[in-house]
Amino acid sequence: MRVLMISSEATPFAQTGGMAEVLAALPTALTKIGVEVDVVMPMYRSVIAGAAAGRFEIENTNKLVSLVLNDKKVSAEIWRLRKQNADQPTPAQYFLRCDEYFDRDGLYGSGETNFQDNAERFVFLSRAALEMAVVLGHQYEVIHSHNWQAALAPVYLRTLYMVEPQLSRTASVITIHNLGYQGIFWHLDMPLVGVGWEFFTPKYMEFHGNLNFLKSGIVFSDMVNTVSSGYREEMLTPEYGFGLEGVLQEKGNDLTGILNGADYNVWNPEIDPYIAQKYNLNDLSGKAHCKADLQRVSGLPEASDVPLVVMVSRFTSQKGIDLLENAIPSLMEKDIQIVVLGDGELRYKDNLATLAKKYPQKMAAFLSYDYELVHKIFAGADIVLVPSRYEPCGLNQMYAMRYGAIPIVRATGGLKDTVVPFNSENGLGTGFKFIDPTGAALSLAVFRAIDIYCSQKDDWKRLVVRSMSQNFSWEISAREYVALYQKAIAKRMRMTNPGLRQV
Ligand code: GLC
User: Fold this and answer.
1) CATH assignment of 2-261+475-502, among 3.40.50.2300, 3.30.1480.10, 3.30.70.260, 3.40.50.2000
2) pTM (2 d.p.)
3) What's the confidence (pLDDT) of residue 500?
């Protein structure tokens, strides 16, 4: 089976969120079970810079894709990652180089402002990806789009590219990593899309007078999935559906949930090169060193018995960073240390900086993303907070568990699916959950956790051991993706061979 994934990010080339990590791990896991996977993404400035700095090698295929978008001719060079080890099958990584669109600081905007031409940039990505398939002569069984930035590919597959022999039978799948980002643009971007105004109706691409990329992708894809079963259910409700609940309900069984895995080649204290001392389930002594190291790096007192609570996040309302801000005054009354790391909206960064200044002995805030430090943080932490208002999957709680840091999560989406609440009667569970999206509810959950940490040391140890033994591996998810691809292919076969419908 051959699959083309279209994405706007992939680690280590360009990343703003968890989706990029999925695009690094899932193609590899699929390759291991015999799927031939190609990935295509824009050649951003960060890709050019990463290659120039020697972090990876890329090469020009000397092939071009050319498109006409609303009378404007645009071309991109097709580049690819040079393969490291030719003996082992690996996914092929392609980049579309169109400097006019992608050689900029930032992927979707600069600072807090989106680029004005995002509709055009991502119309280009989806269409150029299909064009690339044609130019390279690749025959794909499935086109797999991720998020709104790639969501027009399934539309093109059923419209402009329907007559293209190479793609006319290709099935399509779209993965929704976050329904809160839909790619909504004004109606006058329709000519840029180039499929004709007849599709600008509520049945297809129109959404409250605007053009909605994600909705279009959902409508046109053979199969749709999101990144946990819990979020699949939530998406169908007005509370979590962001206005698309009706469109999603119509997909019925063609909408599924597949939990992301955690990449244990990267997030694993046994082999992690960035932490002070490696450790594993059988010998946890290294974790104490990692805690002391994190306290040092954060400028906090080196105290082995004080519970160290961390949060690594994008600072947006979705992630519930304001819940932590509201909880801080009551948390600070306890013997506790808090370390926060992340990037995001300025108002949150300002608040966190002020709080860290106010409590220098108890709180530290790192206000930009730092990959190495994130590893140190999980390794040093006793408790990891994931207080999201909604969370399609969430990766931090999985990473936390592997590092023996106990997650406290809000009971939503993938967080609900992956954390089993601690049960004081039988001592089972892997973490703590709270329900109300408030600072008070978060505080109570933290109080409960630190109480056990301080006074029921055996229970805590068991919690750590159980958390570390969880296995959220990509192998299981990859098999579910293969089943999803097979369903999409079968559905497409029925559509293209109506005679088969009776069988
Ligand atoms: C988005 C979601 C997050 C998910 C990630 C990868 O960032 O918000 O919950 O884990 O995508 O699918």
Assistant:
1) 3.40.50.2000
2) 0.94
3) 55
